[in-house]
Amino acid sequence: MKTTAVVFDLDGTLIDSAGDLHRAVNGMLSEFDCAPLPLNEVRSMIGDGASLLIARALAARQCVVPDQGAALRLFLNHYAEEPTALTTVYPGARETLELLRARGLTLAICTNKPADLTHVILERLQIEQHFTRVVGGDSLSFRKPDPRALMEVLNGIGTAPAASLMVGDSEVDAATAHAAGVPFVLMTHGYHRGPIDRVSCIAACDEFRELASFVAAKLDAG
């Protein structure tokens, strides 16, 4: 079936947000008089949504809090203060998004980041205009790796799983795509936890120009 849509993960796929997430995590930890975590350690915790990120950070510092929900709210407050101070779009991502749209593809986002923050970040980084639909981690009562999150995106843009691609950076994204019957393309620059060769995908791309070439070849092949 001809590919008509590409669904992207956000953090670690289109944007490198580890710096701002790291800042917000340590801001939250400081509220409980806990020592900060190094960037690389926080980077290894990213990918399953804010709740699990905070749970991992608290566990890493053996930081006992009376209410983990309060810790999450503190983190989100710190993050929302300036969610793009240290965040960048990966090299070549803007050009690839423009190319894919020029080829007639519908583009969408499926992320575990809260939807409001997602829209703020997309707007500030000036890439929001490329996406027809955005589903965040709080848009529904379920989130990745539940395939229903991805199916909600596809249903919203009227595209079948077999006519879509999902582009992500992690085992969570791969599991979501496979469970939904959507071919998965891995961006290797992101926040995957295990070896790259153990993430099941139809293609692994180190750079966005490779993704652009892969999708263009797929379209040209019919």
What's the arrangement of strands in the largest beta sheet? 5-4-1-6-7-8
Q: Which CATH C-level class of the largest domain is it?
A: Alpha Beta
The CATH homologous superfamily name of the largest domain equals HAD superfamily/HAD-like
**Rg over C-alpha atoms, rounded to the nearest angstrom:** 17 Å
CATH topology of the largest domain, anyone?
Answer: Rossmann fold
3D structure, described in words:
- 44% of the residues lie in helices and 13% in strands.
- It is α/β, with parallel strands linked by helices.
- α7 crosses α8.
- The relative contact order is 0.18.
How would you summarize the topology of this molecule?
Blueprint (H helix, E strand, L loop, with lengths): L4 E4 L6 E2 L1 H14 L7 H5 L6 H11 L7 H14 L6 E2 L3 H10 L3 E5 L4 H10 L8 E3 L11 H11 L6 E5 L2 H10 L3 E4 L15 E3 L2 H13 L2
Parallel strand pairs: 1-4, 1-6, 4-5, 6-7, 7-8
Antiparallel strand pairs: 2-3
